[in-house]
């Protein structure tokens, strides 16, 4: 049985599975400077030992799944940072750091996910955002294309990740491209979307990275029963709670939540969010609504994950 199969067997048995916290923001918290263009991806090239250490911290805190530091490592993100000739190297280094961390710190099955996302320099420049993305991914140069996703997916699979975690997939065009490239690897695939509460109360995708569609509309276009899980990630805790119920209307498989806490002032994260106990309170509501994969995104560190591992296990028992 593969590590990924062991994780999903636990979910099928009704258990909760703990995902790690934010890798990029934890690197920042430990003194790694965030690149103005490539954000945390440069750490894979310059400080892989710190990347490994962060993964080990999450494993020792109780994470059953760690997500390699490849969120910002597509060609669309690295080429504008002058690192276009090091795309494969950045992704290989990230996965190898995660695998070394598992070997060093895990005492049981821990799955390593390879992240692919919509991240590009557009994320850093608010003035570039806000145009709708209704067309195919290849029509919008701000975001990764099918070729970018394929390039990254092949490296991640070749280096031995257990699954592909698609993150911040908030538009149909690049969403379909990401799903196609990830599925072609033959690995289990998670679809990760982000959501926010609009002034009118509706739950929408992030306009800067998507079409401004409702979460309901996005899932109508992208949800597939063959997915290993659908997650809501990099969203505020309250929006995450509402999104779980919308996901369930479109998808019968495992649902995950890993929310953010704090604020974003590019290229750095502001750590002014929920403490571990407060984050756990939110996580209990996600579990009560049926989420079986729970962790954290930006601003969520090892102590938050320790609180989830201890508190949710007790709650689930």
Overview of the molecule:
This protein is an alpha/beta fold. It has helices spanning 3-12, 23-29, 42-46, 48-61, 75-78, 87-105, 146-159, 172-184, 215-222, 237-250, 276-288, 302-316, and strands at 17-18, 65-67, 111-117, 163-167, 189-193, 196-197, 203-204, 229-233, 255-259, 263-265, 268-270, 293-296. Strand 10 (263-265) and strand 11 form a beta hairpin. Helix 4 (48-61) packs parallel to helix 12 (302-316). The two termini are 25 Å apart. 56% of the residues are buried. Residues 126-138 have low confidence and may be disordered.
List keywords for this structure.
two-stranded antiparallel sheet, globular, alpha/beta, 15% strand, 317 residues, eight-stranded parallel sheet, 12 strands
> What is the molecular shape?
globular
The number of helical elements comes to: 12
| Secondary structure: helix percent | 40-55%
SSE arrangement, N to C = HEHHHEHHEHEHEEEHEHEEEHEH
Described by strand count, sense and barrel closure, the largest sheet is: 8 strands, parallel
Mean pLDDT: 90
How far do the termini sit from each other? 25 Å
Number of strands: 12
In short:
The protein has 317 residues and is an alpha/beta fold. It is 43% helix and 15% strand.
